[in-house]
Write a structure and sequence with these properties.
This protein has about 475 residues and is α+β, with helices and mostly antiparallel strands. The protein has 3 domains: about 160 residues, Beta-Lactamase (2-Layer Sandwich), CATH 3.30.450; about 70 residues, Signal transduction histidine kinase, dimerisation/phosphotransfer (DHp) domain (Helix Hairpins), CATH 1.10.287.130; about 160 residues, Heat Shock Protein 90, CATH 3.30.565. The strands form 5 sheets. Strands 15-16-14-13-11-17 form a 6-stranded mixed sheet. A 5-stranded antiparallel sheet has the order 4-3-9-8-7, with helices on one face. A two-stranded antiparallel ribbon has the order 1-2. Helix 1 runs antiparallel to helix 3, helix 4 packs antiparallel against helix 5 and helix 9 runs antiparallel to helix 10. The longest helix is centred in the middle third of the chain and has 52 residues. The chain is rod-shaped and about 160 Å long. The two termini are about 65 Å apart.
Length: about 475
């Protein structure tokens, strides 16, 4: 597009220039023809004693009108400015000098229309006549056989043909330039497209990569983009090192914390057995609860480190029957749901719902969703775990729905952030559960959405996996 802007500007400028060039070319051609027409008039001058006549029959006049677009005029003028023959209304040029008296005849006052008695060359000028432009040639012609000695011949014609020729030249040049510009634009489009094709290959290679794949790109491309690929590979290497460092730090820190936490838990339990005072027992109970929360946080950090794309990509994804995994995880949380008097319902498809994934990661994802539902559901509430397939969209859906307090729409994206807790939340938690869910989903190419419950209350979290399945049934 930027190339077309100067090309079109150049085309317009050159068209205007070619118009004036065409006018100059037409003026030269038709001035020569006009001069020839004046010579034809001169050839028809007859002297009869002291009289001059012009024998110009209609046939000869028709020849002088060589086209039907312009009008032709002529005059034979005596040295004293009188029209001897021809069109009397055609203006007589100024400064025609009387041969006898030398007095100037004031007729037309154009300074370019000065004809001297000593001049023999034709003089051309453009005048306004009856609202039209005329091209006029004036020529001094000697007539030794007459009483005048010389006369002036004027031949004039309108400029329609001249302008038409100039327009034809301009249009021809403009059309030729437009054809060249169009062909040039097509050539540039094709050439630039072919030149940028290696970039499209690089783009496709990057898009085809799994999340967290920071291996170097293939640099087997034209020399023009080798520097770009080298820079990208250098950036990938830096990111890989940073992610590896972060993952190693999180994993090591979590492992290092687990041992002292286990020791503190043991000593706390021992202290509760040794000390019988109620106040101390209450303090130790609070301490044990805090240690348990810390232990859950450490475990979640370890799971999160294993679930990140950089770590998940190292584990191959295999075919897994999602409803079987969901059934096992749900069954493991039934006792906890019974203690809170929560109704549990599991819906599975009539045929296996197969997805590609990592079993440990899927178990962690489902477990976090179920734990959150149990945590935020009141006694007497209801939780549904649904596995279903959608043939048209080629997807397998895992839905965990509860009748709890729900998640406001403005917080539904924020709850996936690490350590984020909703405003007014008084339930114990680490703020990492849904962050782990999203990381595991991303590693499996799945999408997580938060919706309202089917009854308008509570929360429904839907994880959409690529896969196949059939209608769900109650079990």
């Amino acid at each position: 597009m930027w190339l077309l802007v100067p090309l079109l500007t150049l085309a317009l400028v050159s068209t205007v220039a070619s118009y004036f060039l065409g006018l100059a070319l037409a003026r030269g051609i038709y001035d020569k023809q006009l001069s020839n027409s004046a010579d034809s008039v001169i050839a028809r001058i007859k002297t009869n004693g002291d009289k001059l006549t012009v024998d110009l029959p209609p046939a000869a006049l028709a020849i002088l009108k060589h086209n039907y677009q312009d009008d032709f005029y002529f005059q034979v003028i005596s040295p004293d400015g009188k029209v001897i023959s021809g069109d009397k209304l055609l203006p007589v040029p100024s400064n025609l000098i009387d041969n006898a008296s030398g007095a100037a005849i004031p007729t037309e006052a154009s300074p370019q229309a000065i004809v001297s008695k000593d001049e023999d060359e034709p003089i051309f000028r453009t005048i306004e006549f009856k609202g039209r432009e005329l091209r006029v040639v004036t020529q001094k012609v000697p007539t030794p056989d007459s009483i005048f000695g010389h006369v002036f011949i004027q031949a004039a014609e309108t400029r329609n043909t001249r302008k038409e020729l100039a327009n034809q030249i301009s249009i021809s040049i403009f059309l030729a330039q437009m054809a060249i510009i169009i062909c040039g634009a097509a050539a540039v489009w094709i050439g630039v497209g072919r030149g940028l094709r290696p970039l499209a290959k690089v783009e496709m290679a990057v898009q085809a990569r799994a999340a967290g794949d920071l291996s170097p790109l293939n640099a087997d491309e034209p020399v023009e983009i080798i520097s770009l690929i080298t820079a990208l590979n250098r950036l990938f290497k830096q990111l890989e090192n940073d992610l590896e460092l972060q993952k190693r730090f999180t994993s090591n820190a979590a492992h290092q914390l687990r041992t002292p936490l286990a020791v503190v838990t043991t000593y706390c339990d021992l202290a509760r057995k040794m000390v019988k005072e109620p106040d101390v027992q209450d303090v130790l109970a609070e301490l044990e609860a805090a240690i348990n929360r810390m232990s859950r946080l450490v475990n979640r950090l370890l799971v999160l480190a294993r679930s990140e794309p950089g770590a998940a990509i190292e584990r191959p994804l295999v075919q897994i029957e999602l409803s079987a995994v969901a059934s096992e995880v749900t069954a493991a949380h039934v006792p906890e749901a019974i203690r809170k008097k929560i109704e549990f319902e599991f819906l599975a498809p009539s045929e296996p719902a197969v997805v590609y994934g990592d079993r440990n990661g899927l178990e962690e994802l489902i477990s976090n969703l179920v734990e959150n539902s149990i945590l935020y559901s009141d006694p007497g509430g209801k939780i549904k775990v649904i596995v279903q397939t959608v043939h048209d969209a080629n997807k397998t859906l895992l839905t965990v729905e509860d009748s709890g307090c729900g998640i406001p729409e403005h917080e539904r994206e924020k709850v996936f952030e690490r350590f984020y807790r909703g405003a007014g939340t008084d339930k114990p938690g680490t703020g990492l559960g849904l962050a782990i869910v999203r990381e595991v989903a991303i590693a499996h190419g799945a999408v997580v959405q938060i919706k309202s419950g089917s009854s308008g209350r509570g929360t429904a979290i839907v994880v959409s996996f690529p896969g196949n399945g059939h209608e769900s049934r109650k079990s």
